[in-house]
Amino acid sequence: ELPPSEFMQVADSTWLVLSVVSNGREPPGCQATGVTKIARSVIAPLAEHHVSVLMLSTYQTDFILVRERDLPVVIHTLAGEFDIYKEEGGECVPVTCDDVSNGFLKAKPAASPTLHPVQSPQTRFCVLTVAPDTLPAIATMLIDVLFYSHSPPWDAATGSQDLDSITFFSFSLIEGYISIVMDAETQKRFPSDLLLTSSTGELWRMVRIGGQPLGFDECGIVAQIAEPLAAADISAYYISTFNFDHALVPEEGIAEVIQLLQQRQESSR
User: Where is the CASTOR ACT domain (predicted)?
Assistant: First the structure.
C-alpha cells in the first residue's frame, strides 16, 4: 500500500520466513531455538549451498528469511535433518522434496565466503518487549525515537559512522509480539514499568558486520558470526538490515567474541 517514492529503495527479491523449533523431528509447536543453536544445522548448510539468508532475532524467537526463488535449494538442503512444514490456511502441513523439486538444480558448492570486517561500538544495548495493550502509552515516544532523534553524522569521505557510539533502534511486531532493541541511554526516556526484559536485566554489546552495505546476493555473512559463537556456546541476538548485519552478545562476553572473530579473520588469510 506504500506509494512509490524516489526516497524508498526496495530489494528485488521476495522473502519467505523460516522458524526452527527445538527438535527438528518434532511437529510444530515445540520451543523455538536461538540463532547460536541453529548455526551449524541450518545457517552453515545453507551458506555451503550458496543460499543467502537474512536473520531476524526477536524477544520470543528467531527467524530466518530466504529468497523465494531459493526455496527448492533450502528444502533439499534441510530435508535430511528436519521435518519441514508450510502454513496453509492457518494449518501446518508437511513439505516433501517432491513438492518443490520441479526445476531443481543442485547448487554448486559456494566459493569461500568473504570475511567482512567486524566493528564493535562502545554503545550498550537493551533487548526488551512490551505488552501490546500498553503500546499506546509509549507510542509518542516511539515515534520520536524512530523518526526525529538525530543520528551521528555520516562521513561521506569514509562512508562510515563514528563507531565509538552507534545509533541503533529496532522495533518489530510479529503475530502480536513486540520486540525492541535500544541503547541504554534511550531506554531511560521510556517509562521503566512498561518495558519488560529478562530477569537478569543484562546489557548487550554489538558487533556490526561489513564496512559498506552488504547487499543480498552474498552468502555466509550470518555464518561468519554465528559459527564461531556456536562453537564457543555464546548466545547472540542477530538482526540483518538493508545495509548491514548486527549481532548482539551479552556485555560480559564481548572481549571473547572479538577475540574469536579476530582469530577467524587471521586464520582465513
Answer: 11-78, 201-262
